[in-house]
Amino acid sequence: MHWIILPVILPALLAPIIAFAMRHDITLARVASVAGTSLLLVIALGLASLAADGTTHVYRLGDWPAPFGIVLVLDRLSALMVVLTSALALIVLIHAITTGWDARGRHFHALFQFQLMGVCGAFLTGDIFNLFVFFEVLLIASYGLMIHSGGKERMQAGLQYVVMNLAGSTLFLFALGTLYASTGTLNIADLAVRIPEIPIEEAALVRVAVILLMIVFALKAALFPVQFWLPATYAQAPAPVAALFAIMTKVGAYAILRVHTTVFGPGSAGTEDLAGTWLFPAAIVTIAIGALGVLGARRLMPLIAFSVVGSMGTLFISVAMFTPLGMSAALYYMVHSTFAAACLFLIADLVVSRRSGDRLSPEAPTVQNGLFAALFFAAAIAMAGMPPLSGFLGKLLILDAIRAPDTIVWGWSAVLIGSLLTIVGFGRAGSILFWKSTSITPEAETAQAPPPAPATVGQVAPVMLTLAVLAGLAVFAGPVSAYLGETASQLFDRQGYVDAVLNPSEGG
Q1: CA neighbor of 136 nearest in space, from 119, 153, 111
Q2: pTM for this predicted structure
Q3: Please, which residues bridge with residue 73 across strands?
Q4: In the chain, which stretches have pLDDT less than 50?
Q5: How far, in whole angstroms, is CA 429 from its chain's centroid?
Q6: Is the peptide bond before 16 cis (omega within 30 degrees of 0)?
Q7: How many helices (H) does the chain have, and how many strands (E)?
Q8: β-strands 71-74, 57-60: how paired?
Q9: CB distance 112 to 93 below 8 Å
């Protein structure tokens, strides 16, 4: 049964075909890219259906048994993340095509597919070293997408992005070397077996590896104190690329969920408390940075980028509980925040392309000002966590998960105050862009350039799709939360994961 490897193989085969055979024919490249991404979504939904019964499925490349061979592991969590990636990718791809962003560089669609290959591989791999490999694949593709269509500011932000991630990759290698020297393996299931066998007094190197891995994953997830690369990168990236990058931070979050729960969980050589001890205060500071950044932003794209930083802090406050309830709330908020951030970037692209820039200053009203204002308002209340969309429910679930006496005051205060500041920041931006502009009359229309064309149905459709997903998450919050609760419970079933990977006759 080869379905599990298809989310990696499909974009890996399609990308070079587009790069070499279709790079001079944008129409053909678009057709191939849309068809491939649509098929990826269908495959992802099939894998989610396969994993829905709670069975952990393992794909052994070359039929080599773990831990000696490379394995891909499909459970509820990995299936969820692949579905999330493919659905977001299809929406973003439609926007890039309808707005013409993909035509501003020759290799957009090839890089897009390589990006999907890396992200899907990171979610499916059962080996930490191959997690590093897929990290590098998605990062190399993201470097090209980041500087798509060029520009001095974009190149500067891209350089910072490259330098930071190269530093993260170096630390990742150090962590892998340290972990392998201590245990003799990098297979996640095998690590979950071997680390508890190490006496605590001999596990110093393992604890060093835990901290190094947490720093690397925190860098990918834009968590304090290594979050400073994200605002400039997302603000300068092409809007469709920034929307796709909404899943990039979730790769770091997924890595923390998988590794620090399965490998470094209870009884693991004194490592079980290391992640939670550092994650909680880092998450609170990240929320503060994101909220203050939204409140003080003077441009639209940085404002949205800081809101992404704040959302990651909110997500990790729940993750830091390391309980099934906290993980379930974190997964719900992860799905919500991914689509909410992407929606804001897509709306920003429609608005900014019809203004003189993304500065938050009054200008003459843009074409379709009312439509853009309504879309921005809906996406802003989703990101800020106001009813009736899924952000409100996501934050309620997170608050419900923060119950410990030593965390409830700090956690609730951070989430609620951060939400208030985010609401004020988005309200200020929306009023400047769409309300104050109505009092300005265009001067000398005959001397100005022709007004921008109204957004077409195809250009607005991706935004409407993301808003529909956010509304659906709210309407079907009951069954979605139940599924995510089962996903979180399976994540904490370490023995079930180990048996499926290492003892196939006993596991799934």
Answers
A1: 119
A2: 0.92
A3: 58
A4: 444-447, 506-508
A5: 24
A6: no
A7: 20, 2
A8: antiparallel
A9: yes
